[in-house]
């Protein structure tokens, strides 16, 4: 089965390389086509941009030509001397001297015509300094323009007109004074014209960068063209000039380089094909090694999680006997790493891997799923109990590594496969069983049972109920009195959490650890602190003690939350004592110290709870500066169980007295215990003998009774 899977992976890898090479070639060809398209587009665009510029320049040239002649006409027609001369007997001579003779070699116009007030008689008509007949030269269009221009106006009438020799520009305007003081009579008309001569075209070409500009009667498709229209809008000719085509010019210059680039690209693509073929051959040779690395753990050589799931899928698809899966988690492996270093830990992993692989002939595969978690796949007739005993027997004797004797244990979770069980589900079931085995203690083996899922479901439902109970305030605070050992007076109260439901009460020993596991302990702690303080405000003479989870104290925001609640409820911090267990001193001492110091600065006191049942040292008591020690109830109950119970208790209280730490004894149930504790120096008592946990209302009633007495 493994070889079939490997072959499938080999074919997949090879096909992937071939497909990648083909895709690369296709992409390269597409990019080449795109670049060719870009070059062609840029060439065409450059040509079109320059052609558009040239067309605008041609229109500007015509406009400049019109403007010059129009301005010249206005300068001469609106002239007091010309107006006076036009109506005098010497009008013809005056027109010749000022305009007709000048037309012989004047750059601004080629001819000048003066038409009388009747708009038909010729007063003066000279072209190039010689008399000429306007109607014969210009045709009937000349007199149409005269009739339009005869009326006084500030701007001349300007039109292109077809002549005997080509095309000319006519500008006509009534001869008038610069400023008219009375209504003017019919006026004579002055007309200047300028032909589109080669000299004019050359000047326009130079001025507007239109090389090769010339006049044609018809458009030339291979050239750029701008039409010239007469007064009726009819086209009478075309300005024509060749396109510079700068894009094509540049393209011709870079053509050798483009050809070289195409040749290089072709060689590159050939090289890619050759490299792709070579890589495909190499992958066929390396595929088995790559497959092994992908499905095996590099340290132990066993299957990894991916390889294990693939193997289980092969069992499922082959229809063979379903396997049994065992998950093995080492007990005490972290201590080995901490004591001897990771190198020794790695050697231990290798030894355990070899031992598990060879532990039983029916083990068909072994896997390493994590740091110290392994899996065994078992197919055969051996029972689950026999397999578990065989596996646990591997850890009965210590391992020897470089002269070191290293002891580790194991916890086992087992799950039986089935034709309908997916590999991931089988792995989940084994993991559920392993979780229960670890919870039961070291060296345990548990086989999956549906009850584990049912229990998990119950826990999940309980988590939801707990979250709702915290939000709705269903978890209440009750208070157990703390009394002076000498006077018997109530000096303080310890707040305890109680959860009452419609189906019964849920013990704090159940819901508090649950809150710690599911991340609700911070919300529960703030709720209990707030609720307790709200009630304690009614008892201003009593101190208040509230239990704090180690998880709360390790929260960097815990101190700020407590101070915020105190400020919000206006509660004196000196009345509040937070009780913590010694576990927090071992799990995260640095953060615990920061939180304790921050809260002690505002006046809050701290008590070490359950002293005597764990590992708290004298150094820890002094280092953290506890304000009170609470003796665990196990030391108090020991007074009734053995002769040395009182001696141990007295020694514990003497230790606290030497450190100048007051002592509270909890769990006092009879008068004998109370008497021994008073004699030993305990200053505060707590327990059922003193008073059971009571509601806030009962506490108020009790205090009122004591006050009345």
TrEMBL record:
Domain EAL: 459-707
Domain GGDEF: 321-450
SMART domains listed in its UniProt record: EAL, GGDEF
SUPFAM superfamilies: EAL domain-like, Nucleotide cyclase
Key words of the record: Membrane, Transmembrane, Transmembrane helix
Bilayer-spanning residue ranges: 17-40, 257-277
Record carries keyword Membrane: yes
Name of the protein this chain belongs to: Bifunctional diguanylate cyclase/phosphodiesterase
Annotated source species: Rhizobium redzepovicii
Top-level taxonomy: Bacteria, Pseudomonadati, Pseudomonadota, Alphaproteobacteria, Hyphomicrobiales
């Amino acid at each position: 089965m493994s070889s079939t899977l490997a072959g499938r992976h080999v074919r997949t890898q090879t096909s992937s390389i071939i497909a990648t090479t083909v895709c690369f070639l296709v992409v390269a060809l597409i990019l080449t086509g795109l670049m060719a398209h870009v070059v062609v587009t840029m060439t065409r665009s450059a040509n079109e941009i320059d052609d558009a510029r040239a067309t605008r320049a041609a229109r500007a040239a015509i406009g400049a030509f019109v403007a010059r002649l129009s301005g010249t006409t206005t300068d001469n027609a609106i002239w007091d001397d010309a107006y006076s001369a036009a109506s005098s007997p010497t009008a013809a001579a005056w027109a010749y001297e000022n305009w007709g003779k000048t037309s012989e070699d004047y750059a601004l116009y080629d001819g000048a015509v003066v038409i009388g007030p009747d708009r038909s008689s010729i007063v003066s008509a000279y072209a190039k300094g010689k008399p000429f007949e306007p109607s014969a030269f210009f045709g009937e269009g000349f007199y149409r323009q005269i009739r339009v221009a005869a009326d006084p106006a500030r701007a001349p009438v300007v039109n292109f007109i077809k002549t005997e020799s080509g095309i000319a520009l006519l500008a006509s305007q009534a001869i008038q004074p610069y400023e008219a003081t009375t209504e003017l009579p019919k006026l004579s008309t002055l007309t200047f014209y300028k032909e589109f001569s080669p000299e004019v075209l050359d000047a326009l070409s130079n001025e507007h960068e239109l090389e090769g500009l010339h006049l044609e009667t018809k458009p030339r498709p291979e050239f750029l063209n701008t039409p010239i229209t007469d007064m009726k809008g009819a086209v009478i000719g075309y300005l024509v000039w060749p396109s510079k085509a700068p894009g094509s010019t540049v393209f011709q210059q870079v053509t050798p380089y483009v050809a070289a680039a195409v040749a290089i690209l072709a060689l590159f693509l050939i090289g890619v094909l050759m490299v792709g073929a070579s890589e495909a051959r190499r992958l066929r040779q390396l595929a088995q090694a790559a497959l092994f690395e992908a499905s095996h753990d590099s340290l132990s050589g066993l299957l990894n999680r991916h390889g294990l799931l693939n193997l289980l899928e092969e069992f499922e698809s082959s229809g063979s006997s379903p396997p049994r899966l065992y998950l093995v988690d080492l007990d005490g492996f972290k201590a080995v790493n901490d004591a001897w270093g990771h190198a020794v830990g790695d050697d231990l992993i290798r030894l355990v891997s070899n031992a598990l692989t060879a532990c039983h002939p029916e083990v068909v595969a072994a896997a390493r799923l994590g740091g110290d978690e392994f899996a065994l796949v078992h197919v055969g007739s051996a029972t689950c109990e026999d397999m578990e005993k065989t596996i646990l027997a591997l850890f009965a004797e210590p391992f020897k590594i470089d002269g070191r004797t290293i002891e580790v244990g194991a916890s086992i979770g087992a799950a039986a496969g089935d034709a309908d069980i997916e590999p991931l589900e089988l792995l989940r079931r084994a993991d559920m069983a392993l979780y229960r085995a670890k919870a039961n203690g070291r060296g345990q083996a548990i086989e999956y049972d549906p009850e584990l899922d049912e229990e998990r479901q119950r826990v999940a439902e309980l988590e939801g109920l707990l979250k709702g109970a915290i939000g709705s305030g269903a978890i209440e605070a009750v208070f157990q009195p703390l009394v002076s050992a000498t006077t018997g007076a109530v000096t303080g109260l310890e707040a305890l959490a109680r959860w009452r439901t419609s189906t019964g009460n849920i013990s704090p020993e159940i819901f508090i650890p649950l809150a710690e596991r599911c991340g609700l302990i911070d919300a529960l702690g703030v709720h209990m602190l707030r609720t307790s303080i709200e009630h304690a405000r009614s008892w201003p003479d009593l101190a208040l003690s509230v239990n704090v989870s180690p998880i709360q104290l390790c929260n960097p925001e815990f101190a700020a939350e407590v101070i915020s609640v105190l400020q919000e409820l206006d509660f004196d911090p000196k009345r509040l004592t937070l009780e913590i267990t010694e576990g927090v001193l071992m799990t995260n001492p640095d953060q615990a110290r920061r939180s304790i110091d921050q809260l002690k600065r505002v006046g809050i006191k701290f008590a070490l709870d359950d002293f005597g049942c764990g590992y708290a040292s004298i150094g820890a008591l002094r280092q953290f500066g506890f304000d009170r020690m609470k003796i665990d109830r196990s030391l108090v109950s020991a007074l009734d169980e053995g002769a040395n119970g009182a001696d141990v208790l007295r020694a514990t209280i003497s230790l606290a007295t030497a450190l100048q730490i007051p002592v509270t004894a909890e769990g006092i149930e009879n008068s004998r215990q109370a008497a021994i504790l008073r004699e030993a120096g305990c200053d505060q008592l707590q327990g059922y003998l003193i008073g059971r946990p009571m509601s806030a209302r009962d506490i108020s009633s009790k205090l009122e009774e004591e006050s009345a007495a």
